[in-house]
Amino acid sequence: MSNPTTAWFDTLTASVQALSAASREYRMAERAAHNALWNTDPTRLLPVNGAVSVPRRDSVRPHHDALHQLRSLHTEMLQRTKTLYENTAVAYAHGAAAALHSVLLGERPEYVELRRRGGHYVRPTGALPDLRTLLNDWPGNGGLATLREQVTEREHARTVVEDFEFFWDLAGCVIPEWSRAAEQAADLADTAHAYGETAESALYFVLLTGRASRDPEDGR
After folding, report:
1. Does pLDDT of 214 surpass 90?
2. Maximum CA pair distance of the chain?
3. Alpha carbons 111 and 15: distance in angstroms, whole number
4. DSSP state, residue 218
5. Cα separations (Å) of 148 from 168, 188, 196?
6. Residues 140-161: pLDDT tens digits?
7. What angle do CA 34, 163, 113 make, to 5 degrees?
8. From residue 114, how far is each of 15, 48, 185 by CA, in Å?
9. Where are the alpha helices (DSSP H) in the chain?
10. Which residues contact 194 (CB under 8 A, 6 or more apart)?
11. Which helix (H) or strand (E) holds 58?
């Protein structure tokens, strides 16, 4: 994949930018699916009660049927886009952090490296790196550290939710820990995306201020 005429920092920043763009696309799709579902909310929309006669059936109410079908489609779309947005936002956060960390250590990665399985990014098992010491001269250091804590808390909450999924399916089973974790994990995607954007800004700062060695003559 290497192009000898392209510097390593160009491909690396493009790699991070592509993750950011992918996360934003899924975020917009998730918002659109949410709005579409709201537009078919039976508590908000009054269906037209007119019916049509159908052979071998008493009748069908076209508007009721359309709203039912659309609500089912929008519900499925919302769940899929939520999953894709969270998965990609977390990948963006960890990918941007890994790229930034590598550059701060004097390395020259050409691309963000992530694993994929079944159309999704494999969620990293480790926490986001603590970069406070390495970024002590960057004005946004405190904000990045705060976002790191928030992402870490929400990733832990997401793990708790997944661990309790089996019990949640049991009828009448109320698990307070699950409810608290689900509430905390609800904005994991937005928090991870915000972290990714901040880490991306830090990466540009490091590159533009010469904190990373850049020698175009070596082709890396």
Report:
1. no
2. 79
3. 6
4. G
5. 29, 11, 10
6. 999 999 999 999 999 999 988 8
7. 70
8. 11, 50, 22
9. 8-38, 62-104, 141-163, 165-168, 176-185, 188-208
10. 147
11. strand 57-60
Look-up of token digits 């406070």 = 132
Residue 31: name the closest of 73, 68, 78 by CA.
78
pLDDT in tens, 97-149: 999 999 999 999 999 999 999 999 999 889 999 999 999 999 999 999 999 99
Using DSSP, state whether 120 is helix, strand or coil. Answer: strand
- What is d(CA 25, CA 142) in angstroms, rounded to the nearest whole number? 28
Burial class (CB in 10 A: 0-12, 13-18, 19+), 119: exposed
Q: Which residues contact 36 (CB under 8 A, 6 or more apart)?
A: 70, 74, 77, 78
Q: In the beta sheet, which residues pair with residue 60?
A: 52
Distances (CA, A) of 22 to 103, 163, 203, 209, 213: 23, 28, 18, 27, 29
Q: Which residue has the tokens 């886009």?
A: 81
What tokens were used for 50?
A: 């007119």
Hey, is 116 helix, strand or coil?
A: strand
Rg of the chain over Cα atoms, rounded to whole angstroms, equals: 23
Return the amino acid letter for 103. Answer: V
Q: Give the chain's mean pLDDT.
A: 88
* Token duo for residue 195: 């972290």
Length of the chain: 220
